Description:
Layout: E1 5-9, E2 15-20, E3 25-29, H1 40-46, E4 51-55, H2 73-85, E5 91-96, H3 98-109, E6 114-120, H4 132-147, H5 152-163, H6 170-181, H7 185-197, E7 211-216, H8 224-233, E8 238-242, H9 249-252, H10 254-267
Helix pairs in contact: 2-3, 4-7, 5-6
Amino acid sequence: xxxxxxxxxxxxxxxxxxxxxxxxxxxxxxxxxxxxxxxxxxxxxxxxxxxxxxxxxxxxxxxxxxxxxxxxxxxxxxxxxxxxxxxxxxxxxxxxxxxxxxxxxxxxxxxxxxxxxxxxxxxxxxxxxxxxxxxxxxxxxxxxxxxxxxxxxxxxxxxxxxxxxxxxxxxxxxxxxxxxxxxxxxxxxxxxxxxxxxxxxxxxxxxxxxxxxxxxxxxxxxxxxxxxxxxxxxxxxxxxxxxxxxxxxxxxxxxxxxxxxxxxxxxxxxxx
Length: 272
């Protein structure tokens, strides 16, 4: 990871970021089971022509935990601090899974600060696919092992197998396992509940910035059909399906992911 440095965004909570390169800001937002290290391959790929930044969201990695319940909108407000810290009037936002939902929320709150969106293996909401009773059961099943005394590393094996494609290599599995094992237990529990109740679906049709949608062929959590539905709703958007990838397209098929992202950013570089 030559050239990548870690910086801290002061404030409450303090946020850790990895960064490299110079130029337009590309801001990477990880998923609910991830951290900034998930984006190392993308920072290295983009660092030559962009200022690539990946964060640990509040309560993740080397970022601070926080008191009280999580308001999902806190993530977008934290992201604004990152843009301000680096003097970016606008940024290219790249979000995977929960990170994609944070990017959608950020766009709804601060549209003038968004150059482009790359929404990867994500959805706008859980409301349509999960009625209230099903969402409550999903939350219960995700939280139950941890509330019963297990630690994140104890549930990592099962989560990895539920997320990656059947043919994912050992390196991809290890990277995902390590990120799950590093989860802050209490913050993760709060994020599960806040994430499932978040809904920005009404604002999808109002997105007017260039948008790239990247989905894994074998993603069972957010199947490509979800991405195609968003593609129909976001005017002028582009859709890419990554062959042989599951939910973690950037980790499982980094070359294909980077090629799609770099081509998109090259076309819209000067918007940031």
